[in-house]
TrEMBL record, chains A, B:
GO cellular component terms, semicolon-separated: cytosol
Lineage: Bacteria, Pseudomonadati, Bacteroidota, Flavobacteriia, Flavobacteriales
Entry-linked PANTHER family: HTH-TYPE TRANSCRIPTIONAL REGULATOR AQ_268-RELATED, WINGED HELIX-TURN-HELIX TRANSCRIPTIONAL REGULATOR, RRF2 FAMILY
Residues passing through the membrane, by range: none
Organism: Salegentibacter echinorum
Domain of life: Bacteria
Protein name: Transcriptional regulator, BadM/Rrf2 family
GO molecular function terms listed in the Swiss-Prot or TrEMBL record: DNA-binding transcription factor activity
DNA sequence: CTTATTTAAGATAATTTTGTCCGAATAGCA
DNA sequence: TGCTATTCGGACAAAATTATCTTAAATAAG
């Protein structure tokens, strides 16, 4: 459904949010180990998210990544996905056709558009806060 | 959403079905040109579909691909997708986690499972006949 | 100011997906 | 039989994605 990069992005953001709620800044190393992802690859993804104003990075000793507490609820999964995978999900059609004539859609159009818009809505309505706090019970799931 | 191979597979099957309804057997060349796909790559995909009993291939002069008229309605998109992409869509979770504890699902589980099962249902309920005949008006869409 | 620590950035490598090429096998036809 | 059109099947190549390595830049602390 999403690219590997995007999955890491979501998991990492979730972990950072969880720690930021307790005022902990976390290092790249810690994040990668916590979500079981390749360190350097994760670095690029976090960098991208930082450039997209989704999280903040701090260099130097005691540096790392964090998210402003008050923003955790306004950051939606859709923002993360868009920053990493772009808007491919929203645009292309299921069959990968280049463009589409809305006046004479193929027989699948209605159905696909419905499902895709459900997904979109879900991503837009689900905040990082929701995901992070929703799993405080079984935190280990981020490792899988 | 689907792999490129899968997209070609759906488009090709649709075209073959459309022609088979009129008792025309179509060649690889014709198919590839009709759906705008790389010839050799398309060959592999069609071959795979043939091995999965989704379509029939005939070698030699006047050979090509076809689908038994009476089967066109019982072949569902799900069959094609499964033959090419396997069952990845149905198994993995949105976050790409290896396994999942249904007893203590992450906060996204309900939502994702719902959307995914909608997609699954749609693929299982949509037959090649439906797709092929549904677009007889604007056939050129397969080129895009 | 120096050093240790940590992210930034770019080059490089491995893997997967997508795409190409070519000889072999098959079938129709003269 | 021999010729030709076509799929089959495997080896090969290119492109995209994922992952690693190396060096630079920033910054906190002594
Ligand atoms: S009309 Fe059909 S081909 Fe076009 S965007 Fe919709 S589903 Fe895709
Ligand atoms: S519980 Fe969460 S992590 Fe597990 S399969 Fe469901 S969505 Fe994925």
């Amino acid at each position: 459904m999403f690219s590997k990069a995007c999955e890491y992005g979501i998991k990492a953001s979730t972990y950072i949010a969880l720690q930021s709620l307790e005022m902990n800044r976390v290092s790249l190393k810690e994040i990668a180990s916590e979500i079981n992802s390749p360190i350097a690859f994760t670095a690029k993804i976090l960098h991208k998210l930082a450039k997209n104003d989704i999280l903040e990075s701090v260099k130097g000793p005691y540096g790392g990544f964090q998210i402003k507490k008050e923003r955790i609820d306004s950051i939606k999964l859709a923002h993360i996905v868009a920053a990493i995978d772009g808007d491919d999900i929203y645009n292309g059609c299921a069959l990968g056709l280049d463009e589409c004539n809305a006046l004479q859609p193929c027989p699948l159009h209605e159905k696909f558009v419905g499902i895709r818009s459900d997904l979109k809505k879900m991503l837009e309505n689900t905040s990082l806060y929701e995901v992070a706090t929703g799993l405080e019970v079984g935190l280990t799931f981020l490792k899988r």
